[in-house]
Design goal:
Shape of chain B: globular
Mean pLDDT of chain B: 91
Distance between the termini of chain B: 52 Å
Number of strands of chain A: 0
CATH topology of chain A: MetI-like fold
Bound molecules: adenosine-5'-diphosphate, magnesium ion
Helix content of chain A: over 70%
Structural class of chain A: mainly alpha
Strand content of chain B: 15-25%
Order of helices and strands of chain A: HHHHHHHHHHHH
Order of helices and strands of chain B: EEEHEEEHHHEHEHEEHH
Strand order of the largest sheet of chain B: 6-7-8-3-9-10
CATH superfamily of chain A: MetI-like
CATH superfamily of chain B: P-loop containing nucleotide triphosphate hydrolases
CATH architecture of chain B: 3-Layer(aba) Sandwich
CATH class of chain B: Alpha Beta
Strand content of chain A: under 5%
Oligomer: heterodimer
Largest sheet of chain A: none
Radius of gyration of chain B: 19 Å
Number of domains of chain B: 1
Mean pLDDT of chain A: 91
Number of strands of chain B: 10
Chain lengths: ~260, ~280
């Protein structure tokens, strides 16, 4: 069967459900005369969005940069750090407890501090996204790097392989599934982190716009931005999952059930 | 045997030519004590054993008597508390690389095909993969895995995976093969077939083989000598020469002499309370 048809057959039910839900929403709002500032109908959300499109898209761009920048920063720091923790008893005993302690601090509560220290620019937002994504990536990666079966290591040692060869041929591929688990959790958190950062202090971005529209009771725009934020978050998550499929197909295909899979 | 049969891979990257079949292994007064927190475990006590070149030695003993510890010490993966091991006259001090190892679980790499799992032996040694590819296919075919080269490990049964592990341990033609309960996780029928195939491979290649098991009849069926170990502290209780013709066909392993050997070992375990009726 050609690709699109198969896709439609598999996802057809879900798509039909979404359409039905939106129709129900649209007519229920009209039928019961619900006020627009409480619950606008989908058609209204869409038309309002089209009117403010350029403002909203500029904001979306700002927020996307914060999400991706902070996320990449977290990836770049977490994975080498996880390696150090996994392979050095000293680092594990000295640095890891501090990281766990930092994780206990509610990071959202320290966000205002970052404004005092670093001002209103991009940097404090990157930092907050970084902080939220960082921990799950480190924890999963440490578990991944440590998960090598001792018999596999004994086999590898019996070949006299150099440490570098052992790392690239055995330890790293072995760790990748768990690293990707952390990367996906981080990706799912990243959009929330950026919006929170913008809530605290900002003059741009979707979080900022959300607060503005909310204050003016422009509820259709609030809905539009929530949908847009969800789409950005979802896209980033699926991008990571796509990379996972390309990097470790041997693992992805053996997973019994896909958590998602649009 | 010509001197050049001892040479390492040639410049052209050809597989090593046929080597002398097996190396002698000399285990002298090896003891092992594990210390963990307050606890001291005497795992091995004064093990002395000389394995002849090309000999097939099976070690039987109850769980926890130190069989795996002994294998790791011989392979240089663990330094003994006291005593020493010499392979081919050279003191083992660090992982000994001129050998093949098979464990109870096949420990294949999930991300490599069956063929590439065999070749990882060469890959980790920095060898020329292309030179070994045909040999790997031939050896896989010999153990009944023709046509499975490009499958992933998870697509194969436990027995097939363990066959792959054995091929991986032999692809570089090592003069020493170490096996730690290699058939322990397999069903009885698969186990029997693998025993037959292992004997064939050994008869063809003649590598010195050190085979750990807790199956008494399996040990007798395979070995030139059976080393009977007693529970902690692990000690060699008896060494039994198995004087049975090879290959050990059905007639051999159902013979009176075969069962006598098995009974002998069973009684030895009964005396030590390992087996109780
Ligand atoms: N790394 C270790 N640290 C502490 N004790 C160990 C270690 N390895 C093995 N032992 C102990 O040594 C004894 C022998 O273990 P092992 O060689 O695995 O036995 P076997 O393979 O015969 O079942 C056991 O009591 C085991 O608990
Ligand atoms: Mg064992």
């Amino acid at each position: 069967m050609p690709g699109p048809w198969r896709w439609l057959r598999q996802r057809g039910g879900m798509i039909a459900m979404f359409i039905a839900l939106f129709l129900l929403w649209e007519f229920a709002v009209k039928l019961f005369g619900i006020k627009e500032y409480l619950l606008p109908p989908p058609s209204k959300i869409w038309s309002e969005f089209l009117k403010r499109q350029s403002t909203v898209m500029t904001g979306a761009w700002t927020t996307t940069i914060e999400i991706i920048g902070g996320y990449l920063l977290a990836v770049a720091v977490s994975i080498p750090l996880a390696m150090a923790i996994a392979y050095s008893r000293f680092v594990e005993n000295s640095v890891y407890p501090i990281i766990v302690f930092l994780q206990i601090i509610p990071k959202i509560a320290i966000a205002p501090l970052f404004i005092i220290w670093f001002g209103f620019g991009l940097f404090p937002k990157l930092l907050i996204v970084f902080l939220l994504c960082f921990f799950p990536i480190v924890v999963s990666s440490v578990a991944g790097f440590k998960s090598v079966d001792p018999d596999v290591m004994d086999f590898a040692r019996s070949t006299g392989a150099s440490p570098a060869r052992m790392f690239f041929k055995i330890r790293l591929p072995q760790a990748l599934p768990e690293i990707f688990t952390g990367l996906k959790i981080g990706a799912a958190l990243s959009a929330t982190a950026a919006v929170v950062a913008e809530f605290v202090a900002s003059d741009r971005g979707l979080g900022y716009l959300l607060q503005q529209y909310n204050g003016q009771l422009e509820t259709p725009m609030v809905f539009a931005i929530i949908v847009l934020l969800s789409l950005i978050g979802l896209s980033i998550y699926y991008l990571v999952e796509l990379i996972e499929r390309l990097v470790i197909p041997w693992h992805v295909s053996q997973r019994p059930t896909e958590m998602t899979g649009l | 045997m010509t001197p050049d049969s001892l040479t390492e891979p040639t410049a052209a990257g050809q597989p090593m030519p046929r080597r002398p079949p097996g190396v002698p292994v000399e285990i002298a007064a090896v003891s092992q004590v594990f210390r963990r927190a307050q606890l001291e475990t005497q795992a091995l006590e004064r093990i002395d054993l000389a394995v002849k070149p090309g000999e097939f030695v099976a070690v039987v003993g109850p769980s926890g008597c130190g069989k795996s510890t002994l294998l790791k010490i011989i392979a240089g993966l663990l330094a003994p508390s006291t005593g020493k091991v010499e392979i081919a006259g050279r003191l083992v001090s660090g992982p000994y690389t001129d050998l093949g190892i098979v464990f109870q679980s096949p420990v294949l790499l999930d991300w490599r095909t069956i063929l590439d799992n065999v070749l990882v032996q060469i890959d980790l040694r920095g060898g020329n993969l292309a030179a070994y590819r045909d040999q790997a296919r031939a050896l896989l075919a010999k153990v009944g895995l023709a046509g499975f080269e490009n499958q992933m490990p998870r697509e194969l049964s436990g027995g097939m995976r363990q066959r792959t592990a054995i091929v991986r341990a032999l692809i570089h033609e090592p003069p020493l093969l170490m096996m730690d309960e290699p058939f322990g996780a397999l069903d009885a029928l698969t186990r029997e077939q693998m025993r037959i195939d292992l004997e064939k491979l050994w008869l063809e290649r003649g590598q010195t083989t050190f085979f750990i098991t807790h199956g008494i009849s399996e040990a007798v069926a395979l070995a030139d000598r059976v080393i009977v170990m007693t529970p902690r502290p692990g000690r060699i209780e008896r060494i039994i020469e198995i004087d049975l013709p090879r290959p050990r066909h059905k007639a051999v392993i159902t013979s009176r002499r075969f069962t006598d050997y098995c009974e002998d070992i069973t009684e030895c375990f009964m005396r030590h309370g390992v087996i109780q009726y």
